[in-house]
Structure formats: structure tokens, C-alpha cells
């Protein structure tokens, strides 16, 4: 193998080659100039775009091998690895081209279909409902920009009468108000600082009464005890921010909700199965706090809650949780993505190191993307830091199309109906900073030995820690503040510094790369970057010119900026792509000019501050030239410094919060509808003062009869028209309890006896335990047998009234009646019925004279948000027609998918499926509807023979959460009976704080086909750990009571 020493040239090229040349200067021209080398060309054209760290390590080991034969064998193996990388790159490029082409065609087809759909009955559309379309999108009028101090003061005075309650959610990382451990791990970074400072700033704004930042409670020996404290108050930075009208519970707080492993700190990728548990805990806190604030702010014992004005999710995991909370509480939602999953997936695929399956396994990327898509479905507003985030990152999602957004917005401005189509409002609001405490330094290093604010005091300790690296500490300091991550491009910065002799003579380089104890204890990626930096320092002999301290505190960061400014230095951010660049704003506030990447947020920052230079991060020479220009030209340095200080106020937290709050107050108010009719009575036995209002609400839904028939069912309409007296009795029965004041009870408390006997509330409220039967069988006999077995297991508790039952199914209420009668069961065996996959909710009637069921009309108003109505129905019919045309086979008359008019209701469009295998997967239908800006929840049920399309915020698990919000039913005392599989909404029934009994052997025959539609494994949705105390498995033929005893619910 002695003949393969030529490999060394390739490996040397991998180590020494620069970034790819511009397309305008192909390598062919290098041959003409006499500078062409095959190895350089090979690396530039084949290997570029991959992380060669592993190849470098392998090469280092190979050349250090003493045995010539072994060394050559290793080098030959590396040749094959290089060839494999080239092959992977080519395959990826081909797949990427196909994917982009497919996506472009889907988008274009979707836009055409939307245009055609919205063009139908255009004359009628021109008369579209102005209030409905505009308010749903949350747009009342164009907001005036606040530019002057006078207008800001006017705005502040206008807000003082408001008493807003805001909820922020950030789940991963370690969050506390002081001494944040930024850089401790990849989850505790800039987002942690952002959400804490945002909460603190909002809590100090006029018109805001309380801000809760909800995060995870971590009680682990691996982290500080402070992360296990349930509540932490965020003290305003400036005492002047404290309002004279502060109340007992006002201000900003970090509220830590326990969920997930109780004694373990886990990375964000492992939090996904526990999101539902957080949602239930957060919902309990928000309801409790809303009632407390109602007593404090409204007073008078009215008990009317103050619901959150908005729930703001940060990152995909918190966005997913915020969407579920928004639906459960019926309040507006806001989303800030921070870092987006689709963009990260594309970047990782381009590297070619991991396959899509490996990426998904490592980063749970598909679950993350689905969380972001759901957040887009629900959000009133999406806050971004830059325009680039909108145009290049959010546009990758099915649920957002910039072109379609502009079309819908134009129709809204012209007062034209959008036919049930909705698009979240993308709003660019740059993150803020608090500048009041910052005093930029105006002197030189020679001016004083002490701190500029305290001339007689000693220098901050971090100064000595950095300065000890420099042989000449008087030179200007180039400062880079970033964790050792390949994306941050620190190695290119060190190369640029090392290869530019004039720059080395004029300046020092300080690299603040997080905190570390030992390189071996760092992650493989971080240690690899750090080792590369150290090798480059040695290669260019930069000792005495480059600082790389091991430790610094978060409180040291301002002092580091001051040191760089005092030395007349420059701040640099050389990242390949920077989503925003908060450190650039921080540096500008201390008087530091900047050199930053031209990719991402720094472009917008530079447009406002005009305090430095933008460079191509791939161009090493461009980096060194920009740094040298600022360091050498004192007039340019002074001009950039002055521009930054002059314009920095536009990035202040007050400016950010004013824009933020102005947007929130433009939302259409949303809150639980029954609260709007609660009266100021102080007892549950009082009757509503204005029952006429309640009758008007119910009259809007007279289409619904006992069996929930919609306007699509003619026979049901006849029944309504011929039975008005009977329906009037139902309305009266509904009024007896559905308008009753919902005084919140503490978890586990029971109703007073007078309430139990008053008949004002549905029976489901007075039970000690609620058993939910949610078995998704295909055959009626199996379902009836399992249901009867569960009922018989708790016959004793049923008799004394301590246990109540809810039937949760994809069936319509009329089908449930037939189903129960066929098995000899009575509707009176159940307190409530969740029907049509969660789009309808019925209770057992209070009087046998009024029929068996009473519909909860408020539930419809609770879940109807963004319901597409007739526009959605027409789109689904067109989709069904296209499926029938493509997959009907030889029998042209056979309809594979048809709209089942007799099974549909106002909030559920049901389609019958004859050949489930011939119907596209649920994710494909969901994608199609999202591309067309239709927001809904698609459920394949009944063994794949039925498709229910319901409101996006409706589901069977959300109906259970509604019962908690509406009636105060303790979720921890609910038991949900499910099979081993079921409908495509099956996984939602297993997560949360309720108990679950999984009956083994209960499943639908097509369950595998239905659930392979999911683009991520079930373990990314629910926790299947053996130590999960809330879930027990029991064979169908075993004693169900034994399973309940394992859950500590029943005793003999």
C-alpha cells in the first residue's frame, strides 16, 4: 500500500484550504493563472459544506502511526470516506432539488386553488363580514410608530387604566432572574436571557398588572436549588419602574411548573413527551391566578376572573404548549420561534453527516416541526426579530406563505371575505435591552487604573483574567462573545487574525467561549472547536495576542464590554448565520463598533445603528480587512461608536414593550364565553339577572336537536321546527345550570351539599372520580363488551354517586344513542358525551321530559376559533373528488371518499371512506389544508373508514380540559380508558396529569396503517417509561378494578 501516499495532499488540503471561491471565479481560471492544484479543486468542489472534524482527527491518528503498512491502510480507508462524502453530497443535492420542486408546485397549486375558491361568488364576497374578518386577524387599524419621548409619554398615560395579565412560556434550559448560567449548556443561552428580561420589562410597563413566565421546575442534585423554587419574583431594574398602583400579586414572576422526570435535568429534545403534563399544570395555575387577580383588581366579591390577554410561547416546545393552553382557555396566543426546526433540518441535511432518520432521532426534529406548524395554526401573531426570519425561514412552513399572506391582508383591507382562510400576522419587533445603567467609557487605557464609574475602585476581576493573556495590554481588543459551536465560525476569525500581520500588530483578540472546566468534559462538538482554536493559536504563534479565559459569570459580561470599549476595540460576530444578534446591540450600548456577518439579523441591526461593517463570514480576507479598517482608522471608529450610541434607544425594552402591547390590545378579545354573562352575585343559588341574553345565545344554535343534527340534515330541521316547545324546555334546563357562576375549587375539594341537590350543575361536576371511556374499536360488540366490563367494575361507586362516566368517541350523538340501546345500556349511565372526535359536548339531561341529552353551546364558542366553515367544506369536497378521480381504479362509479351529510354537524365535517388504503395519509391532508390557509384538526377514525375534520382547537383531550375550566373538575381524578391503539388523535389521550388505563388487546385492525402516517415515533409524543405512575396496562379479560387499585383510586 506504499503507493497511496498521495492521500496526504488531499488531507493537507482539507486542513489548509480556504472557503469556496465565488461562482464568478471558477477553479478553471486558477489553472490559467498557474495556481490550480487537483487537491484544492477536489476539496472545494466535493468536500465543501461538510464538517471535516472527524476526518482531521482520523488523519492525525494515521500520520502518527509508526507502522508504514498500518498508516497507509488508514489513509486508504480515508480515501473511501472522502469518496462516500462526495456520493452523499450528490445524493443530497438531487433529493433537495426534487423536494424544492415538489414544494414549489404544491405552493403554486395551493395558491391557484385558493384564488379560484375566493373568486367564486365574488360579488357576494365583496360584501364580506368586515367585523368577522378583521377582528379574527387581529387588525383594527395600522399602528402609529412611536418615535418621540412625548408620544411615548402620551401612550403610557393611555395605558394606565388597563390591568393586563400576560403569560410567557419558555420550557427548556435553566431559568432564574439573577446570575443566569448562560452557556452552561446548549439549552441555557440567549433565549433564557431574552424571556427573563422581556418578562421583567413587561411587568414594569403601564397597563400591565401581572406577568407570569412559566417554565419547568427542576429539583435535581445536578443543578442549583433555586431552579426548584416554585415562584421567583423579578425585581425591576429601576425602582422608578414600580407603579404607585402595585397590587398584592402584581409584577413579574417566574413560575416553575413540575413536569417530566422529577429529579433529573434533561435536554429539550427529551421534553416532548411531557408537554401535556405541563399544559395541565399551567392551566391550573392560570385559572387560580385569574381568579386571584379578579378579586384584587375588580374587587367587591364579584369573583369575575381576569383572563390572560395573551399566552406567548417561546420556541417550538413552548409554542406547542401555548397552542393547547390557548385552546383550553380560549385566549389569544403569540409565538416567537427563536430557532426554527425546518431551517435547522435543511442545514443538517446539507452537511451530509447524518441522514434524515438520524437527525430526527437525535434532535426530534419532526416533532419540533409539527409543534411549530400547530403554533402557526393557532397564533394571532408571530414575533420575529428580522425580516430575514420571515422571508427565508418561516416561508419553509406549510402554514405560512408570504405571498398568500399579502393576498389575504389585501382582501381584509378591501372588506372582502377570505372564505375561512387565516394567516398569522408576522410582526418584526427587535429584542430590547435595558440601557439606564450603562455608562459608555470615553477614556483610553492610560486614563485611569480604576473603573470609569468608580475611579478609586479596583478593576473588575474579569479584566485581570483576560489581560493576563496579552503581552501588550494597551492595544485595542477585538472581542468575540460566542459559545464554541461550528455555526459561530470562530476558527475562521482566528485564521483571519493570524494571517493578517498588520492586524496582529495593532490589536489583541479576546475569545469568550462560554465556561469550561476541562476540555475532556465538554461535548464533542464544543471540544472539537476549542481544540481547533488552540491549534490555530499555536500554528500562527499567537501567544500573548489571543485570550481565551476558562470562566466568566453573566454579571461579568458588562465589564468585558467596557474593557473592549476602553481599549478602543471592536466587537465581532462572524457566525455563518445569526438569527438576530443580541450581543451586537449590547456591544453598541457600551460604545463598541461592530463587524458582523451579513447573513441574518445583523443586517437589520446595522440598518438602524449604522455603527460598523458587514462581511461575508466565509471570506477570511474580508473579515481581516474590516477589522483592520476599524482599528486603524480612529475617525471611522469614533463615527461608528457615536452612531451606535445615538440610535441604540430604538432597541430599548420600553420601545419593544410598547410595540408589543399595542399589538396585543389590537387583538379581538377572547376568553371563556360564559364568563361574559356571569353576574355580580355572591352566591351560587342566585339566578342570572338577564336570562334574555342567555336565550339569545342559545337561539343561535336551535339547529341542534337532541341528536346534534346540523343544518345539513333536513329531517333534523323539521324536528326542530315541529318541537319548539320541547326545545324551549331544553333551553330552560340549560339555563338552570350552564349560566351558574363557576366558583373555582381547590384541587380535590368537593361541592357543598346544597349545590349537589340544587340541580344547577351537570352531574359530572359533583363526582369524586370521572372515568372516561375512549375505546376506538371498529366493531360494536367489542366496544359494548369492554364498556360494560368497565361499568360493572365500579358498580358500588356508581351506586353511591362518587364515580361518573364520560363516553368519548368519534361518533355523532345520534349514533351513540343507537349504540347504547343495541347493547342494553342507557344514556343515564353517562354524565357527559364527547362526540365527533371532540367537536361536540353533551350532558345527561336534567329532566327525562326534555330528552336524554343537552348540548353545551358554550363549548362551540370555545373551540370555533379559525373554523373555516363553508370555505373549508368546499375545499374538502374538491379534495375528495380529486381522490376519487385518481384512485377509483377500474370502477369509475365507485366513490372512495364521500361527504357524509347525515353525520356532519356545524363543527364537524365527516367523510365516509370505502377504501382506507387508497386515501392519502392524514399528514398529507393536513398539509394540503395548511397550504391553503385552512386551520383545522383532521382525525382518521373508525378503523380508517371515517374522516372527521373539526376546529383546530377541538379534540377529545381538549374537551376534558374544557370540563376542568368550565366546571372545575379535577383532571388528576380522571381516568381515561384507551386501547393499545386507536384513531389518529389517540396519543393525545395518554399524556397529562390524568390517569390512563391501557386495555391490552383493544385496538383497531388498521391502527398500524393509521399511525404510520405520523412523521415521528409515538415516544416523541407520550412517555412510555415503565416508571410512569399515571399509566397502567391491563389485559381486557382481567379485573379492571385491579388496574384502578394500582392507580391508588379505589379501595375495597
UniProtKB/TrEMBL annotation:
> Compositional bias (Acidic residues) spans?
676-687
Stored Gene3D superfamilies:
3.90.1070.10, Glycogen Phosphorylase B (3.40.50.2000), HAD superfamily/HAD-like (3.40.50.1000)
**Which positions fall inside the Sucrose synthase first GT-B domain?**
166-392
Give the record's keywords alphabetically.
Answer: Glycosyltransferase, Transferase
The reaction(s) annotated as catalysed by this protein in its Swiss-Prot or TrEMBL entry are: beta-D-fructose 6-phosphate + UDP-alpha-D-glucose = sucrose 6(F)-phosphate + UDP + H(+)
Query: Domain Glycosyl transferase family, which positions?
Result: 471-645
Residue span, Sucrose phosphatase-like domain: 785-998
- The answer to whether keyword Metal-binding applies is no
Record has Transferase as a keyword: yes
In residue numbers, the region (Disordered) covers: 669-697
Q: EC no.? A: 2.4.1.14
Query: Which Pfam families does this one have?
Result: Glycos_transf_1 (PF00534), GT-B_Sucrose_synth (PF00862), S6PP (PF05116)
- Which pathway does it operate in? Glycan biosynthesis; sucrose biosynthesis; sucrose from D-fructose 6-phosphate and UDP-alpha-D-glucose: step 1/2
Biological process GO annotation list?
Answer: sucrose biosynthetic process
The GO terms describing molecular function are: sucrose-phosphate synthase activity
Task: Identify the PANTHER family for this entry.
Answer: SUCROSE-PHOSPHATE SYNTHASE (PTHR46039:SF8), SUCROSE-PHOSPHATE SYNTHASE 3-RELATED (PTHR46039)
- Return the similarity comment: Belongs to the glycosyltransferase 1 family.
Under the subunit heading, UniProt states: Homodimer or homotetramer.
Q: What does this protein do?
A: Plays a role in photosynthetic sucrose synthesis by catalyzing the rate-limiting step of sucrose biosynthesis from UDP-glucose and fructose- 6-phosphate. Involved in the regulation of carbon partitioning in the leaves of plants. May regulate the synthesis of sucrose and therefore play a major role as a limiting factor in the export of photoassimilates out of the leaf. Plays a role for sucrose availability that is essential for plant growth and fiber elongation.
Any idea what this protein is called? Answer: Sucrose-phosphate synthase
The opening ranks of the lineage are: Eukaryota, Viridiplantae, Streptophyta, Embryophyta, Tracheophyta
